[in-house]
Each structure stands twice: as structure tokens, then as C-alpha cells.
Amino acid sequence: MPTCHATVTGGSLPDPSACRVGEDYYLVCSSFEYxxxxxxxxxxxxxxWRQIGNVLARPEQVRLPADASASRGIHAxxxxxxxxxxxxxxxxxxxxxxxxxxxDDPRGPWSDPVWLDVPGGAVDVAWDEDGGCWCATPDGLVxxxxxxxxxxxxxxxxxxxxxxxxxxxxxRLHRVGDWWYLLAARGDGLVxxxxxxxxxxxxxxxxxxxxxPGSGRVxxxxxxxxxxxxxxxxxxxxxxxxxxxxxRWEEGWPVVGGGSATTGHPPPQPAREDFDGSTLAPCWITxxxxxxxxxxxxxxxxxxTLRATGDTLDRPGCTFLGKRLRHxxxxxxxxxxxxxxxxxxxxxxxxxxHYDFEVVAGRVDVVARIGPVxxxxxxxAVDPGPVTLTVLTRTTELVPPSSVRPTDxxxxxxxAGPDTIAFHVDDDPAPLAELSGRYLSPGCADGxxxxxxxxxxxxxxxxxxxxxxxxxxxPTG
Length: 477
Description:
Layout: E1 4-7, E2 17-21, E3 24-28, E4 34-35, E5 37-43, E6 48-56, E7 74-82, E8 85-92, E9 97-103, E10 114-115, E11 124-127, E12 133-136, E13 141-146, E14 151-158, E15 172-176, E16 179-186, E17 189-195, E18 203-204, E19 219-222, E20 228-233, E21 242-250, E22 253-256, E23 272-273, E24 286-287, E25 295-296, E26 304-307, E27 319-324, E28 330-337, E29 342-350, E30 353-360, E31 363-370, E32 373-381, E33 387-394, E34 420-425, E35 433-436, E36 452-459, E37 461-471
Antiparallel strand pairs: 1-6, 2-3, 3-5, 4-24, 5-6, 7-8, 8-9, 9-10, 11-12, 12-13, 13-14, 15-16, 16-17, 17-18, 19-20, 20-21, 21-22, 23-37, 25-26, 26-37, 27-36, 28-33, 28-37, 29-30, 29-36, 30-31, 31-32, 33-34, 34-35
């Protein structure tokens, strides 16, 4: 199977969870409305991470309603290993329930979901010395489950009565030595409670270190050498990055600190996808579902063929195939043969916040969708046949949010976005348009998964020769 390389600190990996099996580490994160769901990464050193698959890779494992809003879908997975099997629990926010899937091999196949009979979502599981499976819920409850059926066989008990201070994320459940721990994150630090039994009562830690860089769920993973790391969401760009922070133990309590947060160093990554294989790499994602007849790698060998299933990117149901944008300084180029189709490349957060670089009827348009407004901000004619479209993001030489192309004229507005997004046609060094990235950023867009950049078609059939994604480029590329 093709694989994609990633770093745990690159791009949007919300709600990270990790486990260790021998010398191998595995990490999962939330995927929200995207399919395949729950991306799965592997590492041998906690630094370089390679995506080896997706936990929910079959349509029947994750059926999201067509009207599921952005940032719903699959939330807060936790990955665990017990009894020679891998277990992932997660929440389907569109269904309002938590579920469990298992696999002998993390590369799959993973089982169909078993729905858990526990209140709320964002659960976690751990096992006692007798093999009993215990579950912690966001409401501070702990119960023993039958993982084969999802039924509660003991409890639940309110194990941690004050687990939820304001701004505190749902807890993780860990058994370390003779202690059971509940761990939760909030902006001013890690909140921890412990007990000798999963039934409680849990007592709060006196102190667990300083402020955490971001918000969301955290996790704890140990190394073969006996060291520990806190896996947590950071304040990343262009999404919510995952970072590692060292943990030391003081009188049986995990304390964050004693060193700097770990940043990953990804293995060498092929920047260009030529679509020469027979399957898509696991990093390719689509909002909500990917009908089999919407794409093909065999219809025109060496090309990706996309067929329109909807007539707009402003509503669910369109044909879109993209990747998570890993860095705010990046360059994405595609070679497109549109024929009579309407197709292009889009950088999106959700249906109401995206910039489209579109080829239709002998011209190329830059289209901005911001809330209720959809506007063609720049356009030029192109010759028939293949065209190269490049979307370049940069964090220097920012343009004001009122600008759509390079200009020396005063605008009366200072740059206010985190980056600038430029659109280039073929090898023209001058951008057709430049737009502020503020409208594709948290606080403006609803897209919790961060930015995704990809290919689309909203009328007819189009073919893509290659897709080239490069990070950390200079503003000129």
C-alpha cells in the first residue's frame, strides 16, 4: 500500500493519542468530517512519523449523514494495545455515540464499530490485571465494559467529582504500576487524578507543571528506557499541531516539564504524486464520503480522473480529493487537463470558507467563498489543454485583507491575517491574485481539521496528471 510521511508537529493533528508496542509507537488523531477517518501514524523514535493507514477506511465503518455539518464526524480517538490486539475508541459526533474498533495489525483491516453503551462521547479505555476493560467518560464516570458488545457490566461510578474545571478537556485513563490515572488538559496546565482502583475515589494532584501550548485532549506514552512523554495538541499553523512534552514523575504524580517540547523530524517525503499506482495513499481525504464512481486511477493510466458528483464546493456532496496542509509556508501545484469540465484546486476549511483556483470555459478564475459571499476576484484566459495551477502560502510580505493582487497603493488596512495565499498560472511569476489567509483561519472558519488543499470537479470529468506539495519554501518558491 502507498504510504505518506508526516511529522507529529506538521499540520493539523487534533486530539492526538499514542501507544507503544515494543519499540514501535502508533498515533491517531481526530478526522472530523473527512473520509477515510482517524489517520494512523507509526514511529520508531517519537520524532519521525509516517502515515501507514486510516483506522476507518471502509464506508460502512463511518457513515456520516449528507447534511453533517463541518467539524462533526469522528472526534477524539484513543489508541490502545491489549491482549495482542489494537483497540481504538472514538466518538461519532454526528451520531452522538462512542464506539470501539479492533485489529490484529494496525495497518488493518479494522473491525466494524461496536457502539458503547456509555453516556456522552470522547471516552478512553484501559485494562486491569484480570483483563477487565474499563472506560472513562467526559462526565467523570468510570465503568467496566464488555468490549465485544459495548455493554456496561459494572458501574458506572462517579470516580472524579471535580474532574471538569472550566476549560478542561475530557480525561484519558491510564494504569501505570499500581495506580490508575485520569489526565485532562486545560490552558493553564495538566489536570491529573489517581486512585488505587478504577472504581475510585480519585484524588487530585497538587500540581502537574506549567501551561500547555494548546487546547484539546492529551495522552501519555512511555519509552522502553522508562522515560515518559505527554502527547498534546499545540497551537500550530495552519491547524492544530501535535507536540510531545517531557514528563517526570514526582511522588507518583506525572509532572509536565524538565525539558522542552519535542518537535518531529519527518523522514524524506516524495513531494510529487504522479498517480501511477492502482490505489490512493492513505493521506488523501474527502469530505464525508468518497463514492467509488467519483474517482479513478485506471480510467486513464498515469492520471487521476475525477467525476463531478455535485455542482458546488459550497454544499456537501461535491467531488474533492485533498491533503491536510502541513505548514503555513508551502506550495501546492497541480497539472490539470479540464476538457469541458469545471475543475481546479481548492484550499478549504469548510463549505463556507474556501479559496478556489478554477478552470472553466477557456479561463481560470480565483474564487473566494467567505461566509455568505462568493466572489470571483480575478480571472484570465487560458489556452485549451493542460494547465498548471499553483497555490502558494507564505507568512512574510503579507497583504491586507482588502487586497486581491499585488499593489503599491495604500489600502488603509494593515495586514491582519496569519499568511498570504497567492495563485499562479503555469510558470507566470506574477500571481493572478493574492488573498489574506485570515478567512481560512480558526476564529473565522468553522473547520476544526485545519486547512485541506486538493483537487475538485463540479461539472463533467477532469483529469489530473500530478499533484506536488512542498513545505517551508521561500516566498518566491
